[in-house]
Task: inverse folding
């Protein structure tokens, strides 16, 4: 229900106006401009209906003070017994949307207020349409620049350029309708990976942008990147079938504000350079732009190529526990380790863990899988590798582990899972294989 603030120093007039409007709107009654100024900060009404002539502060001054104090524009309508044309002209020039003469008929007042609110809703709708990408519902390119640019000037945070990797084959193989569905789902995944206070937009095609406010920890972006890549692949299989073989994923170029500046165009270019690094190094990951590193690369020239490559490829802020990768990355690691095992006669073990519902449980299976993933990662070493191969299965690569120690590893995982809240009702099984 819309809220209307009524401001009138005449008690009878205030009560009568409230009686008329309260049948269709929520009303806030104020007997003076000072009371209205104080109440506005609590209520933020959708419209103000104010008497024009009041002691201490007239309606014009109230309108001007509200605008300057709260930096908002609220629809304003004046009530007055003055029939002067100058009065009406001054009111419109100050920003009022309408006038009504006292005494007024109830039906006339209701109709005029309804017309004002409909006009405001129509204007807001047109404004939103002009700011929004019609396919995804995110900010479009122009409004993304404006909103993120404003945020960068006022607060700290991380600007992320986010590309959907290998998107073109979706259109080529499955058609543009499927391509649109994948883009819409990708936008939903990005929104779910950030907070409601963060800003997300579509710059065009398969390129998106986000600004995570008041975050400067690079490890947070690592978690978001892993989440986005996992969800993209899972959603793509839901949309196109389990036999979908397109290596979809997300590449993210990041830059920290204000460490690397506050100007949007400058930050955007730096994030683009970081994104290029990710694209050049296998995609499905993230990289941060750092001015010092960039300047060092420029000064040292060709002689530092290997140092530059090492810096680009190195893991920033490595987390504790096993290395969690996408299923596609796991496949590449498996193939490499199979070659190494064959050539150097080194044993590398792979475990397949399955989580199945086994009785009454308090949490759904997707949450149980998330919890088990956390247990796996935290129970293993940084040199071990974990990936989720399906909704309820996880694969593990154990490097430099003797076969006699496998039971120690699995027992530790079982023990940690048993102590995890919500594990009741789920059974964990595993299988072992030697990579050959």
Result:
């Amino acid at each position: 229900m819309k809220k209307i603030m009524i401001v009138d120093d005449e008690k009878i007039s205030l009560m009568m106006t409230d009686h008329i409007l309260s049948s269709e709107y929520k009303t806030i009654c104020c007997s003076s401009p000072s009371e209205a100024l104080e109440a506005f900060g609590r209520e933020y009404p959708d419209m103000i209906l104010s008497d024009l002539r009041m002691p201490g502060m007239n309606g014009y001054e109230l309108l001007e003070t509200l605008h300057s104090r709260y930096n908002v524009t609220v629809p304003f309508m004046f009530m007055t017994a003055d029939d002067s044309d100058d009065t009406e002209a001054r009111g419109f020039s100050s920003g009022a949307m309408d006038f009504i003469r006292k005494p007024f008929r109830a039906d006339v007042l209701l109709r005029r207020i309804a017309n004002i609110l409909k006009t405001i809703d129509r204007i807001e709708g047109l404004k939103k349409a002009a700011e929004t990408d019609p396919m995804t519902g995110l900010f479009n390119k122009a409004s993304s620049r404006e909103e993120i640019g404003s945020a960068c000037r006022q607060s700290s945070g991380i600007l992320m350029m986010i590309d959907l990797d290998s998107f073109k084959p979706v259109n080529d193989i499955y058609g543009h309708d499927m391509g649109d569905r994948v883009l819409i789902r990708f936008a939903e995944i990005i929104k779910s990976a950030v907070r409601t206070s963060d800003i997300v937009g579509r710059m065009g095609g398969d390129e998106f942008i986000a600004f995570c406010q008041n975050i400067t920890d690079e490890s947070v972006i690592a978690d978001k990147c892993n989440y986005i890549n996992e969800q993209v692949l899972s959603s793509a299989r839901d949309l196109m079938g389990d036999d979908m073989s397109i290596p979809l994923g997300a590449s993210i170029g990041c830059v920290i504000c204000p460490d690397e500046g506050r100007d949007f165009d400058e930050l955007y270019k730096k994030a683009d350079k970081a994104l290029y690094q990710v694209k050049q190094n296998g995609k499905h990951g993230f990289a941060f732009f750092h001015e010092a590193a960039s300047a060092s690369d420029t000064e040292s020239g060709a002689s530092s190529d290997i140092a530059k490559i090492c810096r680009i490829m190195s893991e920033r802020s490595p987390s504790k526990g096993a290395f969690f990768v996408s299923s596609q990355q796991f496949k590449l690691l498996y193939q490499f380790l199979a070659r190494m095992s064959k050539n150097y006669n080194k044993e590398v073990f792979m475990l397949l863990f399955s989580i199945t519902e086994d009785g009454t449980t308090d949490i759904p299976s997707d949450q149980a899988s998330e919890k088990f993933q956390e247990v796996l990662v935290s129970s293993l070493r940084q040199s071990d590798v974990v990936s989720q191969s399906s909704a309820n299965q996880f694969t593990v690569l154990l490097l430099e582990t003797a076969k006699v120690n496998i039971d120690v590893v699995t027992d530790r995982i079982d023990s940690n899972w048993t102590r995890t809240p919500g594990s009741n009702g789920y059974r964990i099984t595993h299988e072992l294989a030697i990579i050959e």
Q: What stands out?
A: Residues 298-303 have pLDDT under 50 and may be disordered.
